[in-house]
Amino acid sequence: MRVERQISTTYSKISTKKLTTMGLLVALNLVLNQMTLSLGPTMEIGFAFLPIALLAYLYGPINAGIAASIADVIGFLLRPNGFFFPGFTLNALVMGGIYGLVLHKKNITLLRVAAAVLLEAIVVSLIMTPIWLNIMYGSPLFAVPRIIKNVILFPIDVGLLYMLLMNYIKFESRKEHGGKI
Fold first, then answer.
1. What is the dihedral of CA 82, 85, 90, 95, to 10 degrees?
2. Distance CA 134, CA 33 (A)
3. Strands 36-38 and 44-46: what pairing?
4. Taking a C-beta distance cutoff of 8 angstroms, is the pair 70, 62 a contact?
5. Residue 161: how many CB atoms within 10 A of its CB?
6. pLDDT digits (tens, 9 = 90+) for 123-174
7. Domains (ranges, CATH) in the chain?
8. How far is CA 98 from CA 63, 73, 102, 106, 117, in A?
9. What does the alpha-carbon distance between residue 136 and residue 91 come to, in Å, rounded to a whole number?
10. How much is the pLDDT for 7?
């Protein structure tokens, strides 16, 4: 009886509001994953990371990692591109985890956002993704175009994420103080 009660209270910590917000942010990720700004044949500005980073800021690395993984699998089911490879789902899990570890319950500064984006770019884009592509297609582990792409996109991603988080914080502050939204 005591063990049963302990288990039920452990798993009941997720509120309806939290679950709904996470679901909406996953849905937004799926929509934004279909929209990119093309800067050339190999260069795109994507926005799909923004809802996952906001989710990570709000609910932490575990929830963000799980939500990003779910979004990756649902995204593949809705619009398959080649065959399913679980390494990319692991990329999504790690991405959500990194943003959660760096941003959750922390004071948001430009430096902190830059650190989160840089860490995610190094670990996911420059280390993990080349490993998966090598396993799948035998492509080289080190590719200069991938590095150039990440260098170009870094300030853009930092600016987008910083603006999103600062506007969210401002919105929440106004809401808490009864101001106009």
1. -10
2. 24
3. antiparallel
4. no
5. 24
6. 999 999 999 999 999 999 888 989 999 999 999 999 999 999 999 999 999 9
7. 15-176 (1.10.1760.20)
8. 12, 19, 6, 13, 9
9. 15
10. 47
